[in-house]
TrEMBL record:
Residues 37-149 form the AAA+ ATPase domain. Keywords: ATP-binding, Nucleotide-binding. SUPFAM superfamilies: P-loop containing nucleoside triphosphate hydrolases, post-AAA+ oligomerization domain-like. Belongs to the AAA ATPase family. RarA/MGS1/WRNIP1 subfamily. GO terms for molecular function: ATP binding; ATP hydrolysis activity; DNA binding; enzyme activator activity; single-stranded DNA helicase activity. GO terms for biological process: DNA synthesis involved in DNA repair; DNA-templated DNA replication. This is Replication-associated recombination protein A. InterPro entries: AAA+_ATPase, AAA_assoc_2, AAA_ATPase_RarA/MGS1/WRNIP1, ATPase_AAA_core, DNA_pol3_clamp-load_cplx_C, MgsA_C, P-loop_NTPase. The lineage of its organism: Bacteria, Bacillati, Bacillota, Bacilli, Lactobacillales.
Length: 422
């Protein structure tokens, strides 16, 4: 029997879950389908994120024949059969999985068919096509990145599968409790195939009680082979772990920080780790070590591309870097102080010399008159008022001196303040 994930593949573009940057209203693949002007493409991204589903949906929406082959295991003869079908019946959409493993013989056979449009190739790969795919194929295709599904996308697919009586589990009296459903949307890390197959295993292996198949958190944990390490029914434990994670980095305890991130990794919660690390970098380290902030962004981007389990490596590097970096929260303190004045009604008018003066008649309104262009003066600085009159003595930035970089900024800041007020 075909797995649930296979049976629930979309039959048209409207049924695609997630990937709205490609199939949403007005987006590129949706436009191709609506106009029936398909071009060959390569879809790349992590497993279970919808590459095959998009190909199936395109075929269903356009009513073209749809065939699936694997570049690694299917032969040139299999490609020839698809090409013959295209000659006889018209356009065929060919989903070629693992396209990065397409050898030269198969590639040379395919190229003329792509050129004349008889075969619309949709290549699927988890590898970066700019590195792993031959330029001859790459130049004849458009390349689209397929992203891990959001928790809400997976929830939509799960609920659709539970209701569908033809392709899904709608004929079974399933009750999936809220905790189990939330965990299923999180633990599979954006992989819809794993979520649906785990759900199906849970349903088929759980006996009914009082006419209901009750799917609980322990059952889902067993079926997806992942433990809800940081989750509880109300989500309190999950947020406690995230809080402890940030506070451990802020407190420079690298071992505790790695421990709490390990719990989040075991829960499969890459989105929370990624978001929290970038917040920590700029909120708690900030100007104490700006280079660490940039490195953290790069590490998060690498982790999101890699997915688990490999994502743990750049994430661990970032945690160690941040925990052992000099700390400074002067940035968040400064902007919050400025916002506090603004929200208290202390904004004031922009000084005339700073106002927009690019239009005719501005000078008659005294706009821009008297503005001193700093680059015309020694050291590219000249004394003049920038803040509104009622706030001209305000100071929001209170520098820390834990790191060399901010210590240098603090010295420059004090020199400029003194010169401005002299």
């Amino acid at each position: 029997m075909q797995p649930l994930a296979y049976r629930m593949r979309p039959t048209n573009i409207d049924e695609v879950v997630g990937q709205q940057h490609l199939v949403g209203p007005g987006k590129i693949i949706r436009r191709m389908v609506d106009a029936k002007m398909l071009s060959s493409m390569i879809l790349y991204g992590p497993p279970g994120t919808g590459k095959t589903s998009i190909a199936s949906a395109i075929a269903g929406s356009t009513h073209y024949a749809f065939r699936m082959l694997n570049a690694a295991t299917d032969s040139k003869k299999d490609l020839q059969i698809v090409a013959e079908e295209a000659k006889m019946s018209g356009t065929v959409i060919l989903l070629l999985d693992e396209i990065h493993r397409l050898d030269k013989t198969k590639q040379d056979f395919l190229l003329p068919h792509l050129e004349n449009g008889r075969i619309i190739l949709i290549g699927a790969t988890t590898e970066n096509p700019y590195i792993s795919i031959n330029p001859a194929i790459r130049s004849r295709t458009q390349i689209f990145e397929v992203k891990p599904l959001a928790e809400n996308d997976i929830k939509v697919a799960i609920e659709r599968a539970l209701k569908d009586k033809t392709r899904g589990l709608g004929e079974s009296p399933v009750h999936l409790n809220d905790t189990a459903e939330t965990f299923l949307t999180q633990a599979t890390n954006g992989d819809l195939r794993s979520a649906l197959n785990g759900l199906e295993l849970a349903v088929k292996s759980t006996p009914a009680t009082d006419g209901k198949i009750n799917i609980t958190l322990p059952i889902i944990e067993e079926c997806v082979q992942r433990k809800a390490v940081s989750n509880d029914k109300n989500g309190d434990a999950h947020y406690d772990v995230i809080s402890a994670f940030q506070k451990s980095i802020r407190g420079s305890d690298v071992n505790a920080a790695l421990h709490y991130m390990g719990r989040l990794i075991e829960a499969g919660d890459l989105p929370s780790i990624a978001r929290r690390l970038m917040v920590i970098a700029y909120e708690d380290i900030g100007l104490g070590n700006p280079q660490a902030c940039a490195r953290t962004v790069s590490a998060v981007q690498a982790a999101e591309k890699l997915g688990f389990p490999e994502a743990r490596i750049p994430l661990a590097d970032a945690v160690i870097d941040l925990a052992l970096s000099p700390k400074s929260n002067s940035g968040i303190v400064a902007i919050d102080a400025a916002l506090e004045d603004i929200r208290a009604g202390k904004a004031g008018e922009v000084p005339d010399q700073l106002r927009d003066a690019h239009y005719k008649g501005a000078a008659k309104l005294n706009r821009g008159v008297g503005y001193k262009f700093p680059h015309d003066y020694p050291n590219d600085w000249v004394k003049q008022q920038y803040l509104p009159d009622r706030l001209k003595q305000a100071t929001y930035y209170q520098p820390k001196t834990n790191g060399k970089y901010e210590k240098a900024l603090a010295e420059q800041y004090q020199r400029l303040l003194a010169a401005q007020r002299h």
